[in-house]
Amino acid sequence: MTTLDRISDTVRDTIDVIADGWQDVWNKARAAITRFTPAADDKNVPAHGTRWGLLTAELHEDKKTVTVDLEAPGLGKEDFEIYVNGSKLLVRGRKSASAERTEGHYHITERAYGRFERLFALPAEVDDAGTTATYKHGVLSITMPKSEKEKPRIISIQ
Predict the structure, then answer these.
(1) Window from 9-18, 20-29, 82-91 with minimum mean pLDDT
(2) Closest CA relative to residue 134, chosen from 83, 86, 74, 68
(3) Beta strands 88-95 and 139-145: pairing type?
(4) Which of 14, 57, 74, 157 has the fewest Cβ atoms nearer than 10 Å?
(5) Mean pLDDT over all residues of the chain?
(6) CA–CA separation, 125 vs 16, rounded Å?
(7) CB of 95 closer than 8 Å to CB of 116
(8) 98-102, 110-114, 137-141, 151-155 — which is least confidently predicted?
(9) Strand ranges inside 13-104, DSSP E
(10) 41: three-class secondary structure by DSSP
(11) CA 148 to CA 97: how far, in whole Å?
(12) Helix boundaries (H) for 42-103
């Protein structure tokens, strides 16, 4: 094997490792990549700003509940709409740009603004009537009790 062959193999292996890493990042983050649609009345959104952002989440299930924790910093609890239906959870919201800046121009704009929504397929059917939500430190936590037919039952032997 020549030196050129060894260099070629090393470069090919390196490219494969990088491609695998990007594929792993994409597979883990693709559900969190969320489209933001700017509202016509939001004049503070930079014209060259991004329309895509990350709303990362964790979904946890135990015997009695399903919980979704959604990272959505910079919002207030009044900025969210939450809908629960069977085994689906829909979170809608609106992230507005700050009205504090009236002069100058942006050099970096990586934050997304506007309306967004995330739809979660839940691992079990839940009871929407018992659902609770809190918003603290930029994390929206939604706890949904499982419906009675989803909860495990102990069957006694006769």
Answers:
(1) 20-29
(2) 68
(3) unpaired
(4) 157
(5) 85
(6) 41
(7) yes
(8) 98-102
(9) 33-35, 52-54, 57-61, 65-71, 80-85, 88-95
(10) coil
(11) 43
(12) none
User: Per residue in 95-108, pLDDT tens?
Assistant: 887 666 667 777 77
* Element at 8 (helix H, strand E): helix 3-29
Rg of the Cα trace of the chain? Answer: 22
Distance between CA 30 and CA 144 in Å, rounded? 24
Q: What is the pLDDT of residue 81?
A: 96
Determine the Cα–Cα distance for residues 102 and 43; give it in Å rounded to an integer. Answer: 11
Number of residues that this document lists for the chain: 158
The verdict on pTM exceeding 0.90 is no
Q: Using CA atoms, how far apart are residues 22 and 50, in angstroms rounded to an integer?
A: 21
